[in-house]
Amino acid sequence: xxxxxxxxxxxxxxGRCRWPRPGLGTAFLAARILVAFxxxxxxxxxxxHPAAPPAAVSAEERAFLEENEVAMTRMMNDMAAKPTxxxxxxxxxxxxxxxxxxIEMAVTELRYGKNEQLxxxxxxxxxxxxxxxxxxxxxxxxxATDTTPAPTQSPPAPVATGHHHPGMQMDMSNGMKK
Length: 178
Hints:
Layout: H1 3-16, H2 24-43, H3 59-79, H4 87-112, H5 116-139, H6 173-176
């Protein structure tokens, strides 16, 4: 069969078949197929971070990456709250670990970061996220008073209790007068 005969045969067969004509329906089908293949990599992109940092990073960078990974894992696990039937409480239950994760990552930036602008932003994130956690808890009637120090503060000194020794009182008032 010569090439010209082949073309005529294909043209004759094509004329008898009802091929879908390009139109709106075909465009929608193509768009759906494109979305079906494009969305999964985007939707699961947060899960594609490496399990172990590359070997060429410094010890400081490795520590930063490990601490961030711990914070991210804790945040993702804690956000998977079991529904209670109260949308508002469920929202707070999921958003609190989300905000806490941001706080932990900001603390990690303060610990290892060198860029002063980013360090200031990290400090703002800590304050803002702590305030938002408190506001959400108050909004659902939970107490917002957290006696733990801010992540960038050192813990308060322990209060001396049970160490009162009679007869060993100090009178500092004489030394305070001028």
